[in-house]
Amino acid sequence: MAISLCFSPLTATTPKHYSKIPLYKPINPIITLTTPKILNPNFKKVKCVPENSQNFSVIQEKPRWANWLSIAESLYPVYITVGGVVACLKPSTFSWFVKCSPTSYSLTLWFIMLAMGLTLEIKELTNLLLQRPLSILFGCAAQYTIMPALGMILSKILGLPPSISVGLILLACCPGGTASNVVTLIAQGDVPLSIVMTACTTIGAVVLTPFLTTILAGTYVPVDAVKLSISTLQVVVAPILLGSYMQHKFPKAVKKIAPIAPLLAVLATSLVSASIFSENVGRLRSSVVGMAFSSDLPLISRAQNVLASEFGLVAVSVALLHFAGFFVGYLSAALAGFSEPQRRAVSIEVGMQNSALGVVLATSHFSSPAVALPAATSAIIMNIMGSCLGFFWRCINPTQPKSSLEVTDKS
User: Fold this and answer.
1) What pTM does this model have?
2) 343 and 319 Cβ atoms separated by less than 8 Å
3) Would you state the torsion angle of the CA atoms of residues 291, 295, 301, 305, taken in this order, to the nearest 10 degrees?
4) What's the pLDDT score for residue 302?
5) Other beta carbons less than 10 A from residue 400's beta carbon
6) Which residues of the chain are modeled with pLDDT < 70?
7) At what angle do helices 122-131 and 191-217 cross, to 10 degrees?
8) How far is it, in rounded angstroms, from Cα 243 to Cα 35?
9) 3-class secondary structure, 187
10) What span, in angstroms and rounded, lies between the C-alpha atoms of 258 and 260?
11) Bridge partner residues of 353 (DSSP)
């Protein structure tokens, strides 16, 4: 999970005697620069403004260290995969972190959300909410209807054990993950829409995640909606608001910390996921080894046995959940008449969950360790699937007419 990105516009004064508005005001009136030189072709221009606004984006070269930080943040799937491999081969590597759970998990998620708050500009968020209410409302509604329904349906179809069913439903009821913002950027989707959807669904998780989990998973085990709400408020909303307040109150100090905060959040998320995986890998590995090598069955039959094991059920159910989320999210946005960049943003936002929140809620409020398995496994599978989808879409340029660059709501 990478942290949300914020984009602050720079403005350029528009000369009144020009029929066309240039991005740069020429120093010499004899020479007019109609096309500014882009020093870095990989620099991403992201800023949307209303049609009648006089504020236009100005292309600006990013410092080299900022580019290196962006690259390091984008390697989140690599960190997650390496952590999962280490957890499988040597689970004791993360024993120091596991011994302090669930407190260590909660504090780490608190830090992740604080980093998100440090990079989240409330003013920009409010402006986008006012300018694009329908598209944002649609995206948030899709997040909290498509995924919870898919989680419930898959648990029934696959006949999952109660603890895994609860974990899968809890994961499906979590808000969008902040890794979706980076994947949307890679996929050439609507990044501002993705950022606002992540922020809104995260804040809404205080009520919606416990409410939906209680309704859908309450038939398997007792679920305390009030305690879930309090935990979500403590580890999600409170640090985000604190980070935003710090950004407003101490802008100079936050400006020095903010560039490295997303990378630290990425590493912290990887640590939580790998630790949860290492906590359960012994039981999972023994079941897989037993299924695969303890009989004289043919190779195909052994593979079927592995898939039927606890680890196989978790991996298959999580993969199907995210795949269906990507597909149904894109289809719903297409049926609603959204542009291609917006469809990609909705698809990725719906399909990628805040797995770290799922891990924290599962370990804090459910006695069975298996409840946390879907969220921990999701951290690996989801990011690999999301990254592959993002790079696939990157090879297909979305059709973006001029009007699609506006932030005015078109739905």
Assistant:
1) 0.70
2) no
3) -20
4) 56
5) 13
6) 1-62, 280, 282-310, 399-411
7) 80
8) 39
9) coil
10) 6
11) 176
